[in-house]
Amino acid sequence: MSPLQADDSVRWTKKIQDAIADNSALRDGLTDDEAMPLIDWGAARAEQIGARMAAPDTPAPDEEQVSSTAYALTRLMTRITWVVTYRHKKDAAWLTRTFNKINDLSSELHGPDVPALSEDEIAAWIAEHKQYSNGELVNKLIARLTPPTTPDTPGAPPDIPPDTLPGVSPDISPDSISPDEPLEQGGTQYD
Length: 191
Prior knowledge:
Layout lengths: L2 H20 L9 H22 L9 H23 L6 H19 L8 H10 L5 H12 L37 E3 L2 E3 L1
Antiparallel strand pairs: 1-2
């Protein structure tokens, strides 16, 4: 990567990471210990995306595209928080819609070959989530949704144990709140 590309990568990564840091909805309902793995995961995804945006032979994005990417990543992270923190309050249909939105946002950020949650995995998660803590579920979801990387990929996470969603083999490559709508709390919209 040339020095100019490295500068762009750092600038775009910082802009995406700043959006993560500024969005309190990513942590709503989670303790600090439960939220930190998600925040770290998002920061690593921002680094990976920033490096991809600055890759040779890739058209340089404009500021609006970088902002749009940051928004998509924060929405993805917020939906992960929602399925974990609202799992006892929402029905299976809402959880399924939210998981489908997670898949859509992940694909938007990382391309069509990104890991996605299958219908069977979603059904197993809904059936078995009660036996896990919020922190365990956050860790399982981010491990499952982490795009494949190589050791030289910028933002590559450390080796993650082959831990998957509850009841699912590692080989499987709130009712009024829509997973597409921002959550309102205290007059402030989070998304």
